[in-house]
Amino acid sequence: MKDFHKDTMVSKKGIKYFFMLAFYTCSMILFVLFYMQDQMNDYIKRRTTLSTRFDMPDEMEFPTITICIQEGMKESFKDKYGLSENVDFWLNNYGPLGPPNNTLSETFEDLSFILNRDFTIGISQFLTLKEENLTLGINFVHSPFSNGSFDSYSVESLKTVYYGTCYKIQPIDSGTWFNSYRVKIRVSLLIDNLRKKDRPKAFDIYFTSNKTWHGIVGNDWKRFRPTSKSMKFGKQSDISIRNSETIYKEGIENTTSCYTDVLMKTANCPFMCDLLHTKNLPECSTYEELKCMYENWNWINDCLRHKEVKRYSPTLRNSIASDYESILNITFESKESKIVEEIDIISFPCLIGSIGGSLGMFFGFSFSGYFHILFDKCFEKYFN
After folding, report:
1. pLDDT grade, residue 300 (50/70/90)?
2. Do 268 and 204 have their domain in common?
3. Euclidean distance between CA atoms 218 and 259, whole angstroms
4. I want to staple 365 with a disulfide (CB 3.0 to 4.6 A). Which of 139, 153, 189, 359 is the partner?
5. What is the reported pLDDT for 168?
6. At 282, phi and psi to the nearest 5?
7. What integer best gives the mean pLDDT of the chain?
8. Number of folded domains that form the chain
């Protein structure tokens, strides 16, 4: 009889453990399928989301400004050289006469609108009366903050596929811009130097950072499209800009190094020359060199996927200016900066914490509890 009761007790205990095991197994399967699976997928596939915050920095970086005269190339010289589209220059499509006898640089200069030959760019700063005409290289402009001091600007010409020669204006000391600080830019046509057929009606102005302007060369922007405005001659515009920044988890931090490395490894050209104005390679000097490099443009696409992208969003108010000139008054609208950062949906520490917390809430699992049980068992066995 005792053996019967003993067997019954063992049987009941076995059934109890069986159902407990089945319950926990089913619960664990459901937990993995409906909860843990999504989080594991997010972690394994490195899925990301965007986090937004607002900052009030003490200093703000003034944008790099690039000016391109519309339509990029002069119609009279396109007719002269047999070019139908601007891109034909890069593809060596000169019609039945073939390339001209000029050098590559001379032909491009004939086609383009050239600073201080066809137009001028004057610059002055708020509260100063002195306006300086910009030239290629380093320019010094009177500072509004102290007597006798100057701020410096770098001006560089950019050969572009669709816009002819553009001009990049970059403040060298650009970290002390506030919403009370204003720059005045005057773009004036030298009308007597231009044939009537070639006189432009407007120009485009682009706002980028000094790390992300390279896309203008081929009108190829991978992670963003910069803010640009079409400015008509005969207009004066007050431009208030707001600053924002996007930080990606992965991307290129040095476009120049990336561009040089990629071309050296992948481009199939007998002579490597510079398209992105990196100064790490010599300029293209023949029509054949230029065509070969342009046909390898797709190789450098990844170099335009920047890790950090600054955006400048302008608000315009227009008024009348003199014919054949346009005046831009540029200032920051606010010191507030919007920062958007790409982050992991779930990182490894968060994944462990989430799984551990959920196991504790639903199943009473605790590393601390199991450690204490194990410690007690070992302690009792050792001392007994």
Report:
1. confident
2. no
3. 14
4. 359
5. 96
6. -70, 160
7. 80
8. 3
* DSSP, res 274: B
Instruction: Say how far apart CA 224 and CA 69 lie, in whole Å.
Output: 22
The answer on 145 and 36 residing in a single domain is no
Same domain, 232 and 176: yes
CA distance 350 to 362: 18
Query: What are the C-alpha distances in Å from 96 to residues 92, 93, 213, 356?
Result: 11, 9, 36, 75
**What phi-psi label fits residue 13: left (phi over 0), alpha (psi between -120 and 50 degrees) or beta?**
alpha
Same domain, 24 and 64: no
**Average of per-residue pLDDT across 239-247:** 87
Q: Give yes or no for a contact between 324 and 203, defined as CB atoms under 8 angstroms apart.
A: no
Between CA 327 and CA 319 the distance in angstroms is: 10
Q: DSSP for 66-111?
A: EEEETTSB-HHHHHHHT-SSTTHHHHT--GGG-S-SS-HHHHHHHH
Nearest to 203 by CA among 229, 239, 226, 164: 229
Residue 86 lies in a domain: no
For position 179, what pLDDT does the model report? 44
pLDDT tens track for 6-30: 455 556 666 766 666 676 677 666 6
- My answer on whether 286 and 317 are in the same domain is no
Please give the model's pTM, rounded to 2 decimal places. Answer: 0.79
Which residues are bridge partners to 183 per DSSP? 125, 330
- State which residues form the domain around 22: 2-47+355-375
- pLDDT at res. 146: 57
Answer yes or no: is 179 within a domain. Answer: yes
List Cα–Cα distances, 91 to 88, 107, 264, 297, 345, in angstroms: 5, 14, 21, 12, 45
Write the CB contacts of 315 (distance below 8 Å, at least 6 apart in sequence). 239, 240, 241, 242, 333
Cα angle for residues 168, 174, 178 (degrees, 5° grid): 120
Q: Has residue 383 been placed in a domain?
A: no
Number of H helices, E strands in the chain: 9, 13
**Which candidate, 247, 218, 230, 219, places its Cα nearest to that of 310?**
247
Share of the chain above pLDDT 90, in %: 22
Are 313 and 371 in a shared domain? no
